[in-house]
Specification:
Layout lengths: L2 E3 L14 H5 L2 H13 L3 H4 L5 H7 L2 H4 L4 E5 L6 H10 L17 E5 L4 H9 L6 E6 L6 H16 L8 E5 L5 H9 L2 E4 L13 H9 L4 H17 L6 H14 L4 E6 L5 H15 L1 E3 L5 E4 L2 E6 L8 H6 L4 E8 L16 H4 L6 H18 L4 E6 L4 H22 L7 H13 L19
Parallel strand pairs: 2-3, 2-4, 4-5, 5-6, 7-10, 7-11, 11-12
Antiparallel strand pairs: 1-12, 8-9
The protein binds 5-phosphoarabinonic acid.
The site of 5-phosphoarabinonic acid (PA5) has 15 residues, from loops.
């Protein structure tokens, strides 16, 4: 199981920490909330309690493995989980390996933007004839994946290819233009469970298809998530990682720590922090609470990479405004190990490194950063991965989805909606001339421009 260490969140170990009794004050209500949640499980929990979604992806295996490349087009919750999975669980040089080195699994390209330079460069890497394109959009309306879909379809048609042999749509089971087109044209489709919102959907076909195509063990992802859920539903408050993460972050927020930094001491884990940024920001950043009061709440999530950001951000975290709570991600086992050669024995600045492992240096830096922060009175917690594999990554996703649900309860906001994001989508439609959205064109004539 993942290991959670809250030592430096507590006042007895760090001056800016929390008193045990102020945390415990929420134990009863949070535990009751989790019991209610267990009685009426949210969609993202139900999604890992069934084989349905894994099976739906497995059923496409024969089709998927006829291709060399998988190109995923989605945005936000329809992309960030895929990216996090691929970085965490595939070698960094995966796409430059030969098919044999990849054991026949596919190269994976995930394009989550409409930057023409980026899309064009990614497309340059693949032969459309050997590429499967997975268009992911829960709503089937978002401008970015829809524009990218049209571009891809145009390319496939220009090659004279039968589009239905190169496309998979991942979308709502009933609604939306992708479902309509897919039905009319016999395009293969995967369902996103209707009660699972974008940023909670990584362990549904949204994230599972690209994981499967890259040869990841999607069953283990689900097993890890399920075990994290069981632990959260049944564990007492002080042994409950999701409850503790949410409660402590909520309390720090109340004390003015309005920024939550997730700092990964592993390049592979870094993109989990990107996924977390969306989950925490979009779920908890709300103008109104559940009673309709204007509250303007939400903790700003920030991602950082150790040791790199020790030489940039960490000065600010130590001595700047005391408005941050830090979460470190680290691994106890790297897949590859490099020993630093013993050279320059007469040079003390180099000699002490000789014979040490790079992993030891990186993990010592993590401890060093945490202790320096503690010296400055700055709170932090640590999540240790016994190893970076499907099982533990699945746990991570589930713990944070649950922590987000608990934090939503503590902040008294709805963690599952995103009215701010939706308004931006409508304004884009208006600016791009989509019929029916004229009222959202709020463009003002420029009065001051230099
Ligand atoms: O979490 C969310 O709901 C959003 O970030 C969506 O995932 C994002 O806006 C993309 O939406 P869709 O999948 O409907 O295209």
């Amino acid at each position: 199981m993942l290991k959670f260490d809250f030592t430096y969140m507590l006042e007895e170990n760090v001056t800016g920490g929390l008193k045990e009794e102020e945390i415990s004050a929420h134990a009863e209500t949070v535990t009751e909330f989790l019991k209610r949640l267990d009685g009426n499980r949210p969609g993202f929990v139900n999604a890992v309690m069934t084989r349905k979604w894994v099976d739906s992806v497995n059923e496409l295996s024969d089709f998927i493995f006829t291709f060399d490349n998988l190109f995923v087009l989605g945005i936000g919750g329809s992309a960030l989980g895929n990216i996090a999975l691929q970085y965490a669980l595939r070698p960094f040089n995966w796409n430059s390996m030969t098919a044999d080195e990849r054991n026949g699994y596919l190269r994976i390209f995930i394009v989550d933007n409409v930057d023409p330079d980026y899309l064009a460069a990614m497309l340059d890497c693949v032969d459309p004839k050997k590429t499967l394109f997975n268009i992911i959009s829960k709503s089937g309306t978002t401008a970015e994946p829809m524009a990218n879909y049209l571009i891809i379809r145009g390319i496939l048609e220009s090659y004279g290819l039968d589009v239905k042999n190169h496309l998979i749509f991942t979308t709502d089971p009933e609604k939306g233009v992708l479902r309509r087109i897919g039905r009319a044209e016999g395009i293969r489709m995967l369902e996103i469970p209707p009660d699972v919102g974008g940023r909670f959907s990584v362990l549904t076909p949204v994230g599972l298809l690209s994981a499967k195509a890259a040869g990841l063990d999607i069953e283990e992802l689900i097993i890890g998530a399920r075990e994290a859920y069981e632990k959260t539903a049944n564990a007492p408050f002080w042994e409950n990682p999701a409850a503790l993460i949410a409660t402590m972050h909520y309390l720090h927020y109340k004390k003015g720590r309005t920024i939550s930094v997730m700092m990964a001491y592993s390049n592979r884990l870094y993109y989990l922090a990107d996924w977390y940024r969306q989950l925490w920001a979009e779920s908890l950043g709300k103008m109104y609470d559940n009673d309709g009061n204007k509250v303007y709440v939400g903790q700003t999530p920030v991602k950082a990479l150790g040791a790199v950001d020790q030489h940039s951000q960490v000065q600010l975290y130590n001595e700047g405004p005391d408005d941050k709570v830090i979460t470190f991600l680290r691994t106890e086992r790297f897949d590859r190990e490099i020993t630093i050669p013993r050279l320059h024995d007469n040079e003390p600045e180099l000699a002490y490194l000789g014979g040490k492992k790079l992993s030891q240096l990186l993990n010592s830096e993590q401890v060093g950063t945490q202790l320096a922060l503690a010296k400055h009175g700055r709170p932090s917690m640590t999540i240790s991965f016994p190893q970076i594999d499907e099982y533990h990554i699945g746990q991570f996703f589930m713990y944070y989805e649950l922590a987000t649900a608990v934090a939503g309860y503590l902040f008294n906001v709805n963690p599952y909606d995103q009215p701010g994001v939706e308004l931006g989508k409508k304004i884009t439609y208006a600016l791009m001339g989509r019929e029916g959205f004229e009222e959202y064109n709020f463009t003002k004539e420029a009065v001051r421009r230099v």
